[in-house]
Amino acid sequence: MKSENYDFNNIESIMSIKRLIYKKLEGISSPVNNIEYILQRKATEHKKNGRMDLAIACLKKSNELMPYSNFEYSTSDYLRCFKHLKMNGQIKEAEKEEALLRKYW
Fold it and tell me: How confident is the model at residue 3, as a pLDDT?
């Protein structure tokens, strides 16, 4: 799967991203080519450009995929979606996201 196959400016395209099975990372490796990592970076771009709906969609999908990654993400990586939802005034949605995240902790 290549990230070019998806339109990161379209919520439906973001949400259509499927879970992948990655090879184990060896040595000093980085997840920069992993789709969940790319989604985290795209969320940052969207936030900077004032497109919180797309930033939140990227973070939700990233949170969905991170537990299956070959890289171990920190709690703060998972909490980005929760924080963005709260920042955007979506308190109920933030509470739902927090409940989902508790499954991983």
Answer: 64
